[in-house]
Amino acid sequence: MLEIVQIPVLNDNYLYLLHDAGTGDTVIVDPAVDEPVIEELEKRGWKLTHIINTHHHWDHTGANMALKEKYGLQIIGPKAEAERIPGIDQSVGDGDTIKIGNSIATVFDTPGHTSGHIVYYFNEAHALFAGDTIFAMGCGRLFEGTPADMWTSLQKIMALPDTTKIYCAHEYTMANAKFALSVEPENRELIKRVHEVEHKRAANLPTIPTSIGIEKETNPFLRPMSAHLQDTIGMTGRDIVDIFAETRRLKDNF
């Protein structure tokens, strides 16, 4: 079983160390900066063997080369963005698998935030490393993809077991919660969750990981089929992708 360590960096980024005690393999997911990673590794007596990237943005790849030079590791990243991933050794895409120690992850293409974004799903660990495709009560801005691209990507994630833990790359939850309430103000599960999030953030605790089951109940970007949401945003009975697109537009201007 993978040991997962969350490392907060910058203003609101999360990096994740994955460690297989049996083999010693240790991975960092989307390293924005190197010093906090090195500090955590030295504290635990681990040696970094891999980097896995979800997409090319600097706050996910900024430490690739520094860590590669220090540890001589392997960098795995999205095939469709290989030319934009510093130091990439192995490029992967939809349906490919990678092996970290004794754990296998399946790769899914999830374009939308960027054109070649991918996510990594570790079935045995019930863990999804989602980068900027999905957040707690949110999803990534559509910098390089279309609403249809992102909705297709989110449907792939929704098809995974509800118990799957989502390890996303940012602590955007409080801002996302405020928007979610604006489009589904009578969603009881959402109201309950917002109170829980407020308590966690007041105590400076992370709200991540979340789970697919929780997101299905409270994340407006997974809920374009909700009659309540459709009514609130004036899109009753419209095409699902159009409803998703309007929800994303509203969030962009919230």
Describe this structure as you would to a colleague.
The protein is of the alpha/beta class and 254 residues long. The chain is built from nine helices and 14 strands. The protein has helices spanning 35-44, 58-61, 64-71, 147-158, 173-183, 188-202, 212-218, 227-232, 240-252; strands at 3-9, 13-19, 26-29, 50-52, 74-78, 90-92, 97-100, 103-109, 118-122, 127-131, 134-135, 138-139, 165-168, 210-211. The strands form three sheets. The chain has a six-stranded mixed β-sheet, covered by helices on one side. A six-stranded mixed β-sheet has the order 7-8-9-10-13-14. A hairpin with a 2-residue loop joins β7 (97-100) and β8 (103-109). The longest helix has 15 residues, at 188-202. The radius of gyration is 18 Å and the shape is globular. The mean pLDDT is 97.
Any descriptors?
9 helices; alpha/beta; six-stranded mixed sheet; 254 residues
In short:
The chain has 254 residues and is an alpha/beta fold. 34% of the residues lie in helices and 24% in strands. It is globular, with a radius of gyration of 18 Å.
